[in-house]
Each structure stands twice: as C-alpha cells, then as structure tokens.
Amino acid sequence: MSHRNYFQLLTSIGHNRGGLTKAIYDRSNALSESEIAPIFVLPFLQTDAKYIFDQIQSGGKLSKCKFISLYEHLSSERGNDGERATPLNNFDELRKSAQSVVEQHPNGKTIRYFKDGVFFGAESYTSTNQLVAITYHDPREPWKPLARDTFNSSGGVVTRTYLDTTFSARYRIYYSHSGLAILSHWISPAEKNYRFITYASQGSTKQFDSLEDLQFSWLTDCVKQHSPEFMISDEAATLPFLRLKNTGTKAIAAIHTTHVKDQAESREYKAWFPQYCKMQSSVDKFVFFTNAQKNDFSRDAKIPLEKCIVISHPAPSPIQHAGAKTGLVTVSRLDKFKRLDDSIKAFSLISEKHPTIHYDIYGTGPEEASLKELISSLKLQNRVSIHGYTDTPLECFAGAKLSLFTSRYEGFGLTLLESLVQECPVIAYEVEYGPIEILKNNINGILVKNGDIEALSNAIDKILSDQEFLEKLSRNCRDVSETYSLQNWKDGWQSLPSKLI
After folding, report:
1. What residues does 134 pair with on adjacent strands?
2. Which of the four pLDDT bands, split at 50, 70 and 90, describes residue 2?
3. CATH fit for domain 5-76+212-310, picks 3.40.50.2000, 3.40.190.10, 3.40.50.1820, 2.60.40.10
C-alpha cells in the first residue's frame, strides 16, 4: 500500500467558499486517485477548523485525507490536566439576578446585563441562539471594557482578549477544546502581535518572537514527521512556508488570480506580486490556469518559462434540465471587484424592451446591501432577484438563456465553464485572464469593452432579440467540454509530481 502524500497549505477552512476552495478540493480528490494522499495543513489559529473539516469530508466533497493544524497540535500538547477558563468577575452568578435588555440585529442578538443600574457585561448570540461572545466591563467603572471571550459551537471558550479603554485588543489567550490555556501573545497599539508563549503539559512553556516563528517551528516538525513529496500554496499568505523544503520536499505555487492591477493605465502589479518574485528560488513549479498569464507572469517576474506550467480547470459534467431556458443569471460572490452593479445597470437599460426577462443573481458578500439599494433605486424589484449562496450553480445556468460576467479581473473564472457546459452563452467584460482565453467572441458568447455598461447592455439586447443567434451561441458552448476536459486536467495534476524530480 502506498504511503505517498503531499501537504496542501491552507489559510482557513469554512463552508460556502468560492472557486478557489472548490479547485483545491477537486485537485485533492484527483491526486488521491493517483495514490498521493493529501494532508491538509493549517498553520493558522482557526479554533473551529477541525470541526468544519470533518463536516466537509463527511458531506462527500473531499475524499478521505488527513487534517493537521497548529491549533489542534497545541491543544493535544496541552493535555487535559489543569485549571479551565471560567467567566471573569463572577459573571455567571451575577447574570442570574441581573436586569437585562435585548438588542436584536440581523445576525442574532446582544443581551446587556445590569446590577443595580451598573452595566457589567454583554453576551452576543447568533440567529440560532448560539453564544458567540461575552464582553466583560469593570463594575467600578462600567464604561471601561475589560476583556472579550469567544466561544465554539459547543459553548466552550476558545479565546480571551484583554482590551484597553478604546476596545482595542492588547493581550490574547487561546484555549484548547477542554478550556485550558495553550497560547498567549501581546498586541501592540499598532495591532502587531508579538511574544507568543505556548503552554504544554506539566507546565512546559516555549517563547517565540512572532507567530511566523511558531508556525515555522511547527511546520518543520510536520515535514519531518510526514515526509511529504511536495507542498502546494494557493495564496500569498501560505507562500512563505514553501521555504521549508529542506528535507527533499518540493514546492508548488498555484496562482489563481491575475497579478496585474485592474483598470491600470500603466502596467501596475498587485501588492503580493513582489513576494512571488522573491520566492522564485524556493519554488520548483509555478502553476497557472491560462497560457496568457503564464507567459505574462514569466516575463514580468523574470521567472524561466520551464518553471511555469499551465493546468486549466476542467469543465464540469453538464446536468439534465427539462424546463425551458428563461432569463439572465450571474453566480458570483458579491464583492466590489465583481461589479454586479454594472450588470444590474446594463439590464435596466433594456428591461422595458424585454419585459418577460428576469435577472437572477446567486451569491453573498459585502456588497449585498448596496446592490439591493441599487435594484430598488432603479425600480427593478420585480425584475432582479438576489437569491444568496448556491451550491448548485449548474442548475442556475441550466435554466438561463445567458449569463453575465463583469469582474474587473479573473485568474480563470470557473463560473465561465459552468455556464458554457449548460449551453448558456456568456457576456463578459474583456479582461485578463479567463474571459479572453475561454470565451470566443460571437461564437460562444460576447466580449465587450471593459467597464462599458452601454456595450454590455447592447450585447444583452443583441442576443435576446435574435433567437437564431442565441441558438448558435448555445450550440457552440458544447465545445468547452472537450477543450477543458476532466481527463486533461487530471493528467496535468497527476503527472506533475514526476516533473518535479
């Protein structure tokens, strides 16, 4: 039986993540088929990560694989002996006979407690009545915060952060699942974390100047223990850890987004780009998802082309859809750089000409409220709907005539493939790199000038007004399944280890 494995480096893990997370899971499953077992490695202090990982794996999104994290390691080193964390200032007893007021908010509620008119603390709950945090105040000076506890889904405290009078964090303690202190660190007024102390069993302690020092110490031990063939970093935050390849472990940096700033008149690079340039001597292969970015990145970063490789995302298998195709659709995170406001404005310009067409948007994000305000201001409440996150994007595209894609930039754009496999043509801004490589203008969609809302609107009108043209575009969408086949993608990742030798 093979014991080959590799490290998949993570910054965090959670539910309802986007294309990057899906790409990591799909790749892990493909490499598992070739008997290279993934070990998901989280060097950051996410206290609920193991619980979420187990849920994701039991839900079938990931094949059987290991998960290790710095937080879980520190918890296991601490053991179960010692004094558990308890509420400050006898909070539990005081609240039993205290007066309280409840403030409802969209994501839950806050309960504030008073004893004889003196405020001494508050609890925060989710909309499902799960305790999230307790903020303690000094009963002698009730306007002064003392500390804030956060809790896991089981109701156990996982961090205690001591606060100054401006509610700024100055000192933090992490607790194990058993409620025992496992780590503490100071926080400067400039919000810099420093002087990390770990607490293990039998009173053993260690000091590290920074979180990075602690992370590197732990990761070095992990590499020695598991002997991974290679490590993969998919984000700038995990890139520095590729320097750990001192035991024969190879290093792969996968770059999922464009390295060039959007809408720049001159060629300006994103803040993380210099980091990749400096790390090139530690990276064995840079993986890109389009040929255009591979060539541009190699030139801009002065990295030899032989260290760069393209493994495009695969097109998913289409699903059957019995109903008629109606309306427009976008599946996207509701971020500013996705520019959903442009697509809504473009639709508003042709909405009266096409009164039976509805525009459905699927996604969540920080721009949701402002997008809903825009819809209301344009009087499109009955024509444009924001439905929230969907984990069945193919169904959304299967029932739509065409999709809109208005990102400022994209490293690839998985939703482009998802739309095309469902024979749903795409109208997109002509941006680097996914749209200009995946879409063929007037063949399987329409590319319009970046940021030109009127051109976007005209393209929508052109397709909706010409049924024959729409049918031609839809037929041509089928070619994407061959161009971006699942087998080609699998072959690319499964053969990559042999190219690292």
Report:
1. 123, 149
2. low
3. 3.40.50.2000
